[in-house]
């Protein structure tokens, strides 16, 4: 791992959409997991090493850490979202659905 702190937001919207479309059994790298979870790499590493009960499930493949997409989706579903953010997300989703219906 490099000394440079990885920040989520490095992938384009198209790349992120492709990640979200992966099946549950697909394995992704820690950096890709950071993009999906919107966490810094150091935060994800901290959760994995120090707060195993809080970390998304991971597997080791040849000594490398990988996350199953299903485990990331499960982790996200357990996270509480503040009411204001939930309302904004619901409004944005409704607007997107209206836009798609009108297209």
Defining traits:
103 residues; mainly alpha; Multidrug-efflux Transporter Regulator, Chain: A, Domain 2; 54% helix; globular
Describe it.
- This protein is mainly α and 103 residues long.
- It has one domain: Multidrug-efflux Transporter Regulator, Chain: A, Domain 2, CATH 1.10.1660.
- It is 54% helix and 10% strand.
- The protein has helices spanning 13-20, 30-37, 41-50, 69-78, 83-102, and strands at residues 27-28, 59-61, 64-68.
- A 3-stranded antiparallel β-sheet has the order 1-3-2.
- Strand 2 (59-61) and strand 3 (64-68) form a beta hairpin.
- The longest helix has 20 residues, at 83-102.
- The radius of gyration is 15 Å and the shape is globular.
- The mean pLDDT is 85.
Number of DSSP E strands: 3
Distance between the termini: 45 Å
Strand line-up of the largest beta sheet: 1-3-2
Contiguous uncertain segments of 5+ residues: none
Range of strand content: 5-15%
Return the structural class.
mainly alpha
Using the coordinates above, name the CATH class.
Answer: Mainly Alpha
Mean pLDDT across every amino acid position: 85
CATH fold name: Multidrug-efflux Transporter Regulator, Chain: A, Domain 2
> Secondary-structure element order, as H and E?
HEHHEEHH
Helical content band: 40-55%
Largest sheet: 3 strands, antiparallel
Total tally of structural domains: 1
- Continuous helix count: 5
Shape: globular
CATH A-level architecture? Orthogonal Bundle
